[in-house]
Amino acid sequence: MAIGNRGWALWLSALLAIAGGSLAAIGWSQDSAQDPVAEYRAMMGDDNPAVFAEDRGKELWNTAQAGGKTLAATCDLGLGVGKTRGAYAALPRYFKDTGKVQDLEARVVTCLSRLGADTATLVGKRFGDGSESELESLTAYLVEQSRGVPMAVALSHPQERKAYDLGKAIFYYRAGTHDFSCATCHSQAGKRIRLQMLPDLATPEGARAAYTTWPAYRISQGEVRTMEWRLADCFRQQRLPELEYGSPAAVALTMFLAKSADGGVLAAPGLKR
Amino acid sequence: MADPMKIRAALNGDVVEVKALMAHPMETGLRKGSDGKLVPAHYIETVKVACNGREVLSADWGPAVSKNPFLALRFKGGKAGDKVSITWTDSAGESRTDEVAIG
After folding, report:
1. Integer Cα distance of A213 and B26 in angstroms
2. How close A41 comes to chain B (CA, Å)?
């Protein structure tokens, strides 16, 4: 039987199809991609370099600022002035004194500005590649103070409900050059981007697993990164307009995720790629 | 002055397990800062671990080791209460020693 060029090409493509099929049968499980980071975590055990940030945060919390007062003596995170244990588990929440719903980071900025700190500069360089600022240190410390506490965001104030609804709307809102929403990547189980498993934030399990391990020490960056940093980086990856630090949109999205993670036991600061 | 190391030392049968976290920038000297200039190299060059003054580990490190390095090791011959001390010296000539009792 004579096989012309065209015939060979057909043969070849048939062979390739078989090869492709058997490769698929071997099964490049999406889960196996997670193992290197899991191994890393197992090796580190209870040790997490975020502990250095926690120490610095604790010192900042108890050190007098420019005005001569400490955050510990002036800052109310929702449970009363200076109360830190479990405060993060009930954030974001509505604060009467500012008339706004605030997450931990927005609240810390408010507290710092009241003590005369230059928060504009602090917030301005917030999402850069810069090294740890007071915000990361304080966040790491305050989040660590809620380790082991289950998430319990109230949604009892109408403003809190409003923030939740806005956050949910943003989560599912498709926009930008890629026509992406948060849900595009984060509403299916078992998906990954490169070697990173993507949490399915539309389910309580996924939201809990993700929310309770942020803020986290990013091994690849050698820094503690906060929840809002994570959100802003997702915005960047989606080619959305830059997420403004402490903005209603950032807080609302945090509120939606925090409420979705209701009941999840906090284990942050976590250890991430 | 660098932050103190976080060291754990636990006796497991006749083996002492040591885990240590060191706070150090570990700059390779190849990275550029936000001003576009190279950030000078600054990394840990030697690490020594001793148990009651007896050296149990000596290591030469370089710029390939990550920021805030983590070191884990096991050795025999330690008893509960013995002092494990870790010393690092970096390329800027700085050094730091911390110690912990085996628990």
Report:
1. 26
2. 12
> The complex's ipTM?
0.82
Tell me how many domains chain B contains. 1
Here the CATH number for the domain that contains residue B14 is 2.60.40.10
Residue A127 contacts residue A229 (beta carbons within 8 Å): yes
In contact, A63 and A70? CB cutoff 8 Å: yes
Give the tens place of pLDDT for each residue, A92-145. 999 999 999 999 999 999 998 888 887 887 777 666 556 778 888 999 999 999
Closest Cβ opposite residue A222 in set B6, B21, B66: B66
Is A75 an annotated catalytic residue? no
By the CB < 8 Å criterion, does B58 face chain A? no
DSSP code, position A114: H
Residue A109 backbone class (left: φ over 0; alpha: ψ -120 to 50; beta: rest): alpha
Contact B34 A55 (CB under 8 A): no
- Cβ of A129 and B21 within 8 Å? no
Report CB contact under 8 Å: A49, B72.
no
- Domain hosting residue B48, numbered range: 6-26+42-101
Q: How many residues does chain B have?
A: 103
Chain A residue with minimum CA distance to B73? A43
Alpha-carbon distance of B12 to A145, in angstroms, equals 30
CA A127/CA A244 separation, integer angstroms = 9
Measured between beta carbons, the chain B residues lying within 8 angstroms of A49 are 21, 23, 67-68, 70
Q: Which of A50, A104, A37, A24 shows the shortest CA–CA distance to A217?
A: A50
